[in-house]
């Protein structure tokens, strides 16, 4: 009896391991695609930050003076522009993203950036700033205290600065005043747009949806779009249908790609990178130039002259370049092990990858940043 129980437990563990391996690389449809029409919108506005401790714009920033005078006049105060000082005021640009389904009265975060010559926005307060979209309409209004997360102190001889004090954020600093017109739940067909277009991925998505719901309600329109028909059983329950659909797991198909950054020496390889059998030899030429100055002084009371003669020493050394054969890689680990055998630095590997690509032995896209 105990043997039977042990066999059952072992069988269940094996089945569970198979399930885990099959879904190890799977992602939800929510991460792979987004519903057409459900998107954010960019908003921008121009405003003033007040309450700065002498770190605002200088007197030469005319648009700050003009904006301050216009604001004071709207508040019923008449001022002379020639007598206005803006050391405690800074002109800023306010930006944010209006999320989908944002309703009137909900709050969103905003970013504030100086457009003048202000040196620090810490401690400032943003005055009421309308935020407009590309159509010129006002969708939100921002106001509040700015959090920069930076510091900048110093004098005439030295200065200490951390992060960027001329840019900050206001958490929940904008109130939505206008909603983006979008009615959800009245569409018979839903279109999902893939974040990374791929024929194999969109075909797997359609297959997963059809298998889960037991009917052919999904079809692939092209490499970047899947169309889904809402079943009759989910009429008036579109939110539940979308929630259930977006939780389905799909294994995306990726393109073999190597991304290199020559500025930082960073190399990132995907798991599908392969190379054919190729021989690589890589060596470095080192040139060292040393400058020396020889000084010869005469003896005391000899009426001689000091003679200065420069000398240059040039040393040339070339590292030994061994010819290493890189066998055809079957996995990213094999490729990494073969390249590590050369003993090259990351910057040298960038040149090696480019040479292997030029030789036609690299089966991946090489992206140089």
Features:
single chain, 3 domains, 7 helices, four-stranded antiparallel β-sheet, about 375 residues, alpha+beta, six-stranded antiparallel beta barrel
Task: Give a description of the structure.
The strands form eight sheets. Strands 3-4-5-10-7-6 form a six-stranded antiparallel β-barrel. Strands 2-11-13-12 form a four-stranded antiparallel beta sheet. Strands 16-15-23 form a three-stranded mixed beta sheet, with helices on one face. The chain has helices at 2-22, 29-32, 62-74, 199-213, 238-246, 332-340, 346-358; strands spanning 27-28, 33-35, 41-50, 90-98, 107-114, 125-132, 138-145, 151-154, 159-162, 167-176, 189-194, 218-222, 225-229, 249-250, 257-261, 266-269, 274-275, 278-281, 285-296, 307-318, 323-326, 362-363, 365-368. It starts with a helix and ends with a strand. With 369 residues, the protein is α+β, with helices and mostly antiparallel strands. It folds into three domains: 41-176, no CATH class; 184-250; 258-294 and 311-368, no CATH class. The longest helix has 21 residues, at 2-22.
Question: Helix and strand layout, with pairings?
Answer:
Blueprint: H1 2-22, E1 27-28, H2 29-32, E2 33-35, E3 41-50, H3 62-74, E4 90-98, E5 107-114, E6 125-132, E7 138-145, E8 151-154, E9 159-162, E10 167-176, E11 189-194, H4 199-213, E12 218-222, E13 225-229, H5 238-246, E14 249-250, E15 257-261, E16 266-269, E17 274-275, E18 278-281, E19 285-296, E20 307-318, E21 323-326, H6 332-340, H7 346-358, E22 362-363, E23 365-368
Parallel strand pairs: 15-23
Antiparallel strand pairs: 1-14, 2-11, 3-4, 3-6, 4-5, 5-10, 6-7, 7-10, 8-9, 11-13, 12-13, 15-16, 17-22, 18-21, 19-20
